[in-house]
Automatic annotation (TrEMBL):
Listed Gene3D superfamilies: Glycogen Phosphorylase B
Organism: Sphingomonas aurantiaca
Domain Glycosyltransferase subfamily 4-like N-terminal: from-to ranges: 16-187
Transferase recorded as keyword: yes
GO molecular function, one term: hexosyltransferase activity
Protein name stated in the entry: PEP-CTERM/exosortase A-associated glycosyltransferase
Length: 403
């Protein structure tokens, strides 16, 4: 079976999007399938039109999308043209487009022209991601238009995959047939995240974390992540746990505001910002953290979409504490594999973390339960088989139609 994946961006860029993509492609190769990918104009400038990265082949679209509707349409047309040339070179049996919706629109053009089956996989609704990132509002014309376009694309794809039940339920509520939707949940490549990292004592000493109760966040600094609430919780946490320290690893649109908030905090000396680190060094920082905290704000995006980072943390034997929003509830069983606290409430964060630090008697058991959950229910080596019957059915239907 030959699958061409159609992506917004890909390796060597580093994001939750590219890591999920890598996991899917590598796991599919592990099943003996042949895969390739084509990235859109938002990937940026690439050194060659076709690249091999980490053993995976990426066809690149020329970079650049002009702002405004005319620019978007031109970008979709250019992307479709590049997808078609990748089809000529790779000769896939099926197209697998991944959100945002403009990828599906470009793929639909090629699928119809070449009579290829198309799976459209939604990781988040683009309009809700814009609200979460602070680049859009739920009352805007752009939001309504993007939502309508998403529904239009879903109706015309041959099948739809989503990463969680929240997205599936939303599509069913829009009138999409439930049997058209496959849930392919976020998972972890245990070859990358399956071993608990040792503590790097030298790094811990350099960051002033020796003997500390370390709370950490490792990821992108978007507004919806609620990191301002986590920083806001630190004075109350330090009041009851004087050795509590917060380690912030990553960067993003909110970084400057979060650094300013931390500097103004009465416990500024208990908050450490590291900045972005290369992916191959991330485990060094995971190894310093006692509890990974994910204080996402309550909004449509976080209620519908499951994040990847808590799964990676559990796979590495780390404790997790997260806000009680829909996306987290699909991943974390409160009191069993992690702790859930009320969203948008710094005091509630501080209270939950203080309770966890005060009683470490079940930490080993909770770590083991979390890792077992990832291994049995969120492991890409088994998750990937969810695509098998879907692909097989669509390819067989396409063959019958051609005959």
């Amino acid at each position: 079976m030959r699958i061409l994946h159609i992506l917004d961006h890909g390796l060597p860029l580093q994001s939750g999007y590219t890591f999920r993509t890598r996991a899917i492609l590598k796991a599919q190769e592990g099943l003996g399938w042949t895969v390739a990918a084509v990235t859109g104009p938002r990937h940026g400038v690439a050194p060659a039109s076709v690249e091999s990265i980490d053993g995976l082949t990426f066809h690149r679209t020329a970079a650049g999308v002009k702002p405004g509707p005319v620019g978007e349409v031109a970008g979709i047309a250019a992307f479709a043209k590049r997808i078609e040339s990748a089809v000529d070179a790779f000769k896939p049996d099926i197209l697998h487009a991944h959100s945002p919706v403009i990828d599906a629109l470009a793929a639909l053009i090629v699928a119809r022209k070449r009579k290829l089956p198309l799976v459209y996989e939604i990781r988040a609704f683009w309009e809700d991601a814009a609200v979460g990132n602070g680049t859009g509002t739920a009352t805007s014309l752009r939001y309504r238009a993007t939502r309508a376009l998403e529904t239009w694309a879903v109706r015309r794809a041959h099948a739809v995959a989503v990463i969680c039940e929240g997205l599936r339920g939303d599509l069913v509520a829009r009138g999409i047939a439930a049997d058209k939707i496959t849930v392919s949940p976020n998972g972890v490549d245990l070859e990358l995240f399956g071993t608990a990292p040792p503590r790097d004592d030298a790094l811990g000493a350099a960051l002033g974390l020796d003997g500390a109760d370390v709370v950490g966040f490792i990821g992108s600094f978007y507004d919806y992540e609620g990191l301002d609430d986590l920083i806001g919780a630190m004075p109350a946490l330090v009041a009851v746990r004087p050795k509590a320290r917060l380690l912030m690893v990553g960067g993003g649109p909110m970084e400057a505001a979060l650094r300013a908030q931390a500097e103004a905090s009465p416990v500024a000396d208990a908050i450490r910002f590291v900045g972005r680190v290369p992916h191959e060094e991330v485990e060094r920082y995971y190894g310093l953290v006692d509890i990974l905290a994910y204080p996402r704000k309550r909004m449509r995006l976080t209620d519908l979409v499951t994040p990847l980072k808590p799964l990676e943390a559990m796979a590495q034997g780390r404790l997790v504490a997260a806000s009680n929003v829909g996306g987290h509830r699909e991943l974390i069983r409160d009191g069993e594999t992690g702790t859930l606290f009320p969203p948008d409430d710094p005091q509630a964060i501080a209270d939950a973390l203080a309770v966890m630090f005060a009683d470490r008697s079940d930490w080993d058991e909770r770590r083991a339960r979390g890792r077992d959950f990832v291994k049995t229910e969120r492991n890409w080596s088994s998750n990937i088989r969810r695509y098998d019957p879907l692909y097989g059915r669509l390819i067989a239907a396409a063959a019958r139609e051609k005959r």
